[in-house]
């Protein structure tokens, strides 16, 4: 099984979760991690994997956007005593660009008759601990966009929780490894 994990991370939590998911996936094959900022059109056009996983932080109840990143992440982190932004974090929402540039997940015969192969996909996010009504959940928006692009759902969207200081809660990294293993089992 070949898996590709594309993620966006501001404070490093989503990156940490993506690495843990990859660890779980590697029990059944290869897993490559790519930050959304590095997911260029050529990479996306040549997506040749069995499983595509996309994840990002929850901002303003959903996908990160330019307006949810003001003030700029590094300034916001230091101003509120929060962790510094992760290396490569940018003001712009790379995740939205990636989702818009994804190739269609199923390959259809020229006459539009039959699906030859449908790529499986899964979505995850990092978000504050609390009811979804109050925190939002980026993974649902990612999963919806993946379905619209023709990807088959490999699992329900997953959320990995952070506390009020933007630190992953105890046990979330282990839970991410287990989620990766469950995805690997689905793909086998």
From TrEMBL:
Lineage: superkingdom: Bacteria
Recorded hits in InterPro entries, A to Z, give: Flavodoxin/NO_synth, Flavoprotein-like_sf
Domain Flavodoxin-like residue range list = 3-184
PROSITE patterns assigned to the protein according to its UniProt record, in alphabetical order: FLAVODOXIN_LIKE
Protein name, UniProt field: Flavodoxin family protein
Source species of the chain: Catenulispora pinistramenti
């Amino acid at each position: 099984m070949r898996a590709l994990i594309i993620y966006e991370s501001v404070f490093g939590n989503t990156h940490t979760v993506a690495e843990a998911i990859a660890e779980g996936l590697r029990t059944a094959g290869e897993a490559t991690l790519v930050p959304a900022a590095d997911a260029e059109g050529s990479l996306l056009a040549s997506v040749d994997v069995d499983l595509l996983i996309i994840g990002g932080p929850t901002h303003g109840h959903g996908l990160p956007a330019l307006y949810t990143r003001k003030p700029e992440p590094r300034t916001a982190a230091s101003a509120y005593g929060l962790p510094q932004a992760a290396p490569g974090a940018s003001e712009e929402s790379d995740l939205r660009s990636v989702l818009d540039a994804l190739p269609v997940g199923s390959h259809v015969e020229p006459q539009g008759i039959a699906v030859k192969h449908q790529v499986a996909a899964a979505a995850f996010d990092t978000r504050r601990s609390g009811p979804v009504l109050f925190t939002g959940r980026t993974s649902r928006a990612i999963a919806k966009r993946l379905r619209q692009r023709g990807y088959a759902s490999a699992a329900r969207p997953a959320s990995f929780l952070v506390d009020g200081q933007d630190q992953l809660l105890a046990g979330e990294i282990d839970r991410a490894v287990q989620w990766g293993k469950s995805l690997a089992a689905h793909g086998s």
